[in-house]
Amino acid sequence: MERTIKKLTNLIKSTHLIGANASNVLRHQANYSKMAVRRLEAIQFPESMDRPDTYRLDHDNRSHSSSVQIWSPFVAQSLSGPDEEEICFGVQRSNVIDALYSYYDRKDGHAIEALTSSRIEIAGRAWKDDLVFSSIMDRTLKRLKTRANSHVLFQAPKSTGHRTLSVWFVGVVHCYFSYVQDGNVNFLAIVEVMKQQQFDNYNVVTVARNSRGDRYKKYAVISISNILEVVGLVRYSASDNLFKVVWPYIKYTDKIGHRPAGSLGDL
Q1: What mean pLDDT value characterizes the chain?
Q2: Residues 35 and 154 grouped into a single domain
Q3: Band of the pLDDT at 165, cuts 50, 70, 90?
Q4: Which residues neighbour 207 within 8 Å (Cβ) at sequence distance 6 or greater?
């Protein structure tokens, strides 16, 4: 250790801004070490060949760099069967069907007559804008004990007379899936939405989780493209159901693009 300290001390040349010089030295050393590790990884673990069977690209954009993707494992599920059967890792079939109807009603601006397919293909992870989104399905299959990447901030349209606003919600994703409606493939997610969401006095997002049991949970189907951020929940009081919401590079003054908070009735 003494040799390391001496080596780094000798690299500090400034007599005026010693603290800044020391910080720059440490940063340079860290970047050098990171580069060396990446070179070793590239040699020892070269990138594998592209495997189309491990992901699905969205229907409208086939570009690998900008499209929405869902990642394996994939599980085919049917919308036909007992209503109480769970088909999306904790979500009953009846809740998935109701949420699908609501999604297409919001998307089309009017009530649809029927769902045109009885099949969905669920997946544990999704990819968009260089971010990987996880889910309860992924966490369950991998037996993970963390809640990482399954809570998301998303937007949804809200009609107010002749205008349509974009409002925001926070929820936990149970699974991602592809669904074909009227011949169009849609990449969607089934989300349990927080009971209440709002800004506090400092523009920090605050949410309340349902505490009354499964009967009162609110599920919504959303487009993966409408997910804005992967978020984390921070408990700030004695209650187990009240949280502050955080995510990387958050700008509190931006107020989520100046979108208002949504209510469960909007979904």
Answers
A1: 83
A2: no
A3: confident
A4: 170, 194, 195, 196, 197, 198, 233, 242, 243, 245
